[in-house]
């Protein structure tokens, strides 16, 4: 079977085609007056929903089962010149619903395409918009056009985002859900940190093999990852594959092997170039020969590593991630979990001994109490020691935190370090 060529977006009016040109449907503008909150009221799905691409019979509730686009790809860019995003992070390309055989649909609902995604998010999810301004960037500087392209091409082909899946649907709800889910999945895939821990860092002089890169990413993702390069052998894109159990909005994303297009990078001589920004600090180039990386790669694949864990310092925000929660929110200044939108609290991480650090907020020091609950308050005399594993906040060596329930509306949930009903993790974003 011939798989349709994949068009990669590289600007508002320019595409790099992997195989040959394919026609693009004309985009019809969809207007939306943004006025008032869009209620998060997608349908609740039963617990026995089959995993996408794994059902043996037709599943009646199409709002709770992704089909035909059940092979979900979270795609990431490494834009080195011109550079986008932080020097030490990959950036978001999109979230794509491929068919289970590796083919795909595109621009599935012209009547639901949007031309004002920035306005929608500014009104309904300003935290998402702020994050996108750093981590979801267009290489040609037209972020709005890029976001429109990604939703209009891919988001309209996600059947669980169709208006009929929202009781009391208000135009724009599906855009907010698409963006939030894309960000949530992206945050669980810290490509730069994974590669860095294995000694694979941007360099003007050192090259890497496909096997070296693939070994590291597979060790973390649990399945092979598509590794793409441009014609100059420069690493520039990754595709992480998932199935989903439930809806795109609230379902559980399950890592799976790739289907469809293979990696486009050569077997060797891959360039992972530093991002070229005026005044930016380029990561130090490693002089380690490719053959000597095997020890580090073995560590990434599962052996015990003697490297000290990463640490953080300065001011930042703690964003939550929890399986099945489409809008996972953040940690508020008192130490509770909140999902109701708004501005996240600012925490200050102060380095301590052994790579650990303490946290303070506007409320005071943050510490784990005798009942294992987290509290930030002026009454806390001494803050607890926290850690950072390169991806998530940790306490006593574990990145898992817990609550009794997922907070809704304006409610907050107390966070615990001992097992409870809901498991969550926190990522750090510098303020």
TrEMBL record:
UniProt GO BP: RNA catabolic process
Keywords in alphabetical order: Cytoplasm, Disulfide bond, Endonuclease, Glycoprotein, Hydrolase, Lyase, Nuclease, Signal, Vacuole
Record's subcellular location: Cytoplasm; Vacuole lumen
Stretches assigned to the RNase T2-like C-terminal domain: 311-429
GO CC annotations on file: extracellular region; vacuolar lumen
SUPFAM superfamilies: Ribonuclease Rh-like (SSF55895)
Entry-linked Gene3D superfamilies: Ribonuclease T2-like (3.90.730.10)
Predominant localisation class: cytoplasm
Molecular functions (GO terms): hydrolase activity; ribonuclease T2 activity; RNA binding
Highest taxon listed in the record's lineage: Eukaryota
Catalytic site: 93, 150, 154
Documented EC number(s): 4.6.1.19
Family membership: Belongs to the RNase T2 family.
Protein role: Rnase which modulates cell survival under stress conditions. Released from the vacuole to the cytoplasm during stress to promote tRNA and rRNA cleavage and to activate separately a downstream pathway that promotes cell death. Involved in cell size, vacuolar morphology and growth at high temperatures and high salt concentration.
Name of the molecule in the record: Ribonuclease T2-like
Species annotation: Verticillium longisporum
């Amino acid at each position: 079977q011939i798989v349709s060529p994949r068009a990669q977006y590289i600007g508002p009016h320019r595409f790099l085609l992997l195989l040959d040109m394919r026609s693009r449907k004309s985009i019809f503008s969809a207007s939306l007056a943004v006025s008032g909150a869009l209620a998060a009221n997608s349908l609740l799905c039963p617990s026995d929903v089959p995993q996408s691409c794994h059902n043996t019979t037709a599943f009646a509730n199409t709002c709770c089962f992704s089909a035909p686009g059940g092979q979900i790809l979270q795609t990431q860019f490494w834009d080195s010149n011109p550079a986008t995003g932080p020097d030490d992070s990959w950036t978001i390309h999109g979230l794509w619903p491929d068919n289970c055989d590796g083919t795909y649909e595109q621009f599935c609902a012209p009547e639901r395409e949007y031309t004002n995604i920035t306005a929608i998010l500014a009104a309904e999810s300003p935290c998402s918009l702020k994050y996108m301004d750093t981590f979801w960037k267009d290489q040609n500087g037209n972020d709005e056009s890029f976001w429109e392209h990604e939703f209009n091409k891919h988001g309209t082909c996600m059947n669980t985002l169709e208006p009929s899946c929202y009781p009391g649907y208000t135009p724009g709800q599906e855009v907010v859900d698409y963006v939030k889910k894309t960000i949530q999945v992206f945050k669980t895939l810290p490509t730069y940190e994974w590669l860095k821990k294995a000694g694979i860092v941007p360099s003007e002089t050192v090259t890497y093999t496909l096997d070296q890169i693939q070994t590291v990413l597979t060790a973390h993702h649990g399945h092979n990852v598509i590794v793409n390069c441009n014609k100059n052998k420069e690493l520039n894109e990754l595709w992480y594959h998932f199935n989903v159990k439930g809806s795109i909005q609230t379902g559980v994303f399950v890592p799976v092997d790739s289907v469809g297009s293979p990696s486009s990078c050569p077997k060797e001589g891959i360039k992972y170039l530093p991002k070229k920004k005026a005044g930016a600090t380029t990561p130090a180039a490693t002089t380690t020969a490719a053959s000597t990386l095997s020890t580090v790669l073995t560590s990434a694949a599962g052996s015990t590593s003697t490297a000290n864990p990463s640490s953080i310092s300065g001011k930042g925000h703690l964003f939550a991630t929890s399986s099945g929660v489409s809008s996972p929110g953040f940690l508020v200044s008192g130490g509770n979990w909140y999902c109701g939108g708004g501005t996240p609290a600012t925490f200050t991480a102060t380095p301590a001994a052994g790579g650990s650090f303490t946290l303070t907020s506007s409320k005071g020091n943050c510490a784990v109490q005798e009942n294992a609950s987290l509290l930030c308050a002026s009454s806390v005399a001494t803050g607890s020691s926290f850690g950072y594993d390169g991806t998530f906040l940790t306490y006593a060596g574990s990145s898992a935190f817990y609550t009794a329930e997922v907070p809704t509306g304006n409610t907050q949930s107390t966070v615990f370090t001992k097992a409870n009903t809901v498991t969550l993790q926190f990522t750090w974003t510098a303020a």
